[in-house]
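Aggregate trends can hide what the representation actually does to any particular protein. The sequence in question and its structure tokens are set out directly beneath this paragraph.
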Amino acid sequence: MVYITVMQSPIYHQMTLEEFLFQTDAYAGSGSLLNANITNTRTYMYGCVSEYFKKFFDFPKLIEKLAIFNESVEPLRDVERSDLYSSFHIPKRSGGLRRIDAPKPELMDALRRLKTIFEEDFRVLYHTSAFAYVKGRSTIDAIKRHQKNESKWFGKYDLSNFFGSTTLDFVMQQLGYIFPFSEIVKYPIGRSELMKALELAFLNGGLPQGTPISPLITNVMMIPIDFKLSNELRSFEKQSFIYTRYADDFIVSSKYDFDFKRVERWIVEVLAEFNASFTIKAEKTRYGSSAGRNWNLGVMLNKDNNITIGHKKKRQFQSMLYNYIMDKRNGILWDLHDIQVMSGLRSYYHMVEPTAIDNIINHINEKMGVNVLRLIKEDLR
């Protein structure tokens, strides 16, 4: 099987593969369509790729591009890989610490160039169920998929050590199913150059978190798995489900109560079917309904089918604004970082609940006799 993914606008008719991926005459003149901010995709599965599709890519030229890249980064291969990274830890939302391996400048530049080759020359995309690390998409967009379905019951499934467990062999296996990589690997030199280029993105046998290319690799390699999970969950054991993936977080929802453990077992079976180098971390599986504390990806889809940050966060944000103004009046200046955090929270919260956040801002302005957004803007300069 081979998978071909194209951009897909939900506001236009269901375009064919040829119409959008290859910009046929039917749409070549539609500048507004081709230049639109489109974040949905459509994946097609075929037994093989027809000659019609192959003619839109110059495979020898793609291989040459990889070869030139590999030659340009040869000096980096002579350096101990760990010496090309700076490592540190950041707190996890769920507790504990997450290790981040950030490439040093020379490796960072190389990985950015490889990412550009994949994006521009290979035209890589992601399955429509994937929401992490995608320009124009966020956690809110993922939850909106479930909101649109008016889902009431939710199963949340986490992958164990997703990045660290992803091996080069697994990535190469998956790319063998994904066009145009599926054609590149048919050439011995193409497989060799692709594998050599990708190897530079790995550290200690896995994908490090902190590089510009690791997210892209995971989204591409997951296309066949996302495709199977999404398609088959639409009608799974006589029930309809919505599936979204945010990096290593799977959310499966339905309008009705369901056997979340059965769904978990099936997901594990699908991962095993693809010989995935990772699986579900069963102890982190959660199940609940919108009638309870239904938190997913940091927000809640409540019983009224509204996405909210919750009362607690709104109260904390209001107190933060109040303390900021009072400190400012008393000559106590906040650190730039703290003001940036406050501004970032305001932007994110406003994206989730614009009316509620506007009401908080207006309440603070009236109570304190200020324009708090103007004060924040001035302090950020």
